[in-house]
Amino acid sequence: MWMLGSLLVTATVCPEGSVLKSRTTPEAREEWCDKDGIRHGARRAFYPSGQSWFEGEYTQGKRSGAWIFWYENGKLMAQATYVDDKVEGPVQRWHDNGAKALEGTCKTGVAHGRWQRFWPNGKEEVVATFVSGKPTGNTQYYSRRGSLIDRARWLNEKAPGATPGSDRYLRLELENQLESLFAECHN
Hints:
Elements lengths: L1 E3 L2 E3 L9 E6 L4 E7 L2 E9 L5 E8 L2 E9 L5 E8 L2 E2 L1 E6 L5 E8 L2 E2 L1 E6 L5 E8 L2 E9 L5 E8 L11 H15 L6
Antiparallel strand pairs: 1-2, 3-4, 4-5, 5-6, 6-7, 7-8, 8-9, 8-10, 10-11, 11-12, 11-13, 13-14, 14-15, 15-16
């Protein structure tokens, strides 16, 4: 451990057989454990100010375990758990003001179950349910004040051969937009 300004910094420890590597760019300082050209062990990055940006672990080149991200102001940005390089379990994200921005669950790298996005004031923005990465059931959209402004009903089906302008094509476009709102499970 050492002090960097007012921050307490711990040394990155690599597993046996791995060596610590690092690089500094104008955007960040990064450290990672390398075993024969493959990331294996801890990986950390710091903002130019010295504040932690993120930290997590690799196992034979694949993300594993808890990964945590911070804003440069030191507030928590996001956290998720990886299994074999896929997000697995609860995912949370916060706005830079500290208010919750998103929460949901990933299953084998795709959204599964109830997901919520929040406005910076803490009010719900979107509430959706996913099954194996596809929206299903009712999705609600809320104003910044918390009033319900729209809803959609998903049948969790693909629309092969949908042509531009058709209702099924428009539904797929909306589905893709919704999936991009909840893209936390994607690598």
